[in-house]
Design goal:
Structural class: mainly beta
Number of helices: 0
Shape: globular
Strand content: over 45%
Distance between the termini: 40 Å
Largest sheet: 7 strands, mixed
């Protein structure tokens, strides 16, 4: 089993930045492609972005590219989501997820999920 724990959510003003972290308990973290997703109230879960097992490839939802940056530190078993220029539509519960192997450009097929962390952007 793989356990994921998100942290770093909170309240931020529009135009501000926030960095989310996800600590992963997997024995071999580098075996897993990691993804970030979000779900706003009344809406379905949507894909934010992903990063390959060794961090050499990244894939983002088109409208978020340039504002959100995914990174990972395999030595610390942690994946990050840096969020910049936040606006009210970014308000959501953010989840990290893991899948064994690839693919970085496929939003489906993630096997393990964290509990989520709330991000609220004030107008």
């Amino acid at each position: 089993q793989v356990q994921l724990v998100e942290s770093g959510g909170g309240l931020v003003q529009a135009g501000g930045s926030l960095r989310l972290s996800c600590a992963v308990s997997a024995r071999t973290f580098s075996d897993y492609t990691m993804g970030w997703f979000r779900q706003a109230p009344g809406k379905e879960r949507e894909f934010v972005g992903s990063i390959s097992r060794l961090g050499t490839s990244r894939y983002y939802a088109a409208l978020l590219k340039g504002r959100f940056i995914i990174s990972r530190d395999n030595a610390r078993n942690t994946v990050y989501l840096q969020m910049n220029s936040l606006n009210s539509e970014d308000t959501a519960v953010y989840y990290c997820a893991a899948r064994s192997g690839g693919s970085v450009d496929n939003p489906d097929g993630y096997d393990y999920w964290g509990q989520g962390t709330q991000v609220t952007v004030s107008s």
